[in-house]
Amino acid sequence: MKFLIINGPNLNMLGIREPDIYGKQDFKALVAYIEQCCAENGVECKTFQSNHEGDIVDEIQAAYGVMDAIVINPAAYTHTSVAILDALKAVALPAVEVHLSDIYTREEFRHVSYPSMACLKSIYGKGFEGYKEAIEYLKKYIEER
Ligand code: DQA
To answer: Which residues of the chain have pLDDT under 70?
Structure first.
């Protein structure tokens, strides 16, 4: 089983970026956490981070026929990107959306998520643990399918 884990813009700035909201651990620690969760679940993973919408679309398209599932934190593109929504719909892989913070208790513009419309589940406000929950959920979903 092979999962693609996508992190969108500014998540590479974790640890520096608004630590009161996103925590003090850096992006390297997030990637290590994700890789460990995947290994514990016997899942192979590819992690990908980009600050560019088109690169994220390209990566989702490249997952077609190669990956079994996608975990995505589209970051700010969550609230704007029909292109990412359409790419997820195009490849039609089981996908889960993750946000470190609770987007529904923050500014109103964060309450809309386009990619969630192509995701089986959205997990938010659980910090790094949200990725673990997403990996476990998708593994179970694929096994039971
Ligand atoms: C985020 C929430 C988004 O609103 C924000 O633009 C981000 C990070 C989160 O993980 O909580 O960059 O996706």
So the answer is: none
- For residue 103, report the distance from its CA to the centre of ligand 1, in Å: 7
Can 52 be counted among the known catalytic residues?
A: no
pTM comes to 0.98
Distance CA 118, CA 26 (A): 28
| Protein residue with least CA distance to atom 6, ligand 1 | 76
Q: Is 79 a catalytic residue?
A: no
Residues 6+ apart with CB under 8 A from 107: none
pLDDT of residue 37: 98
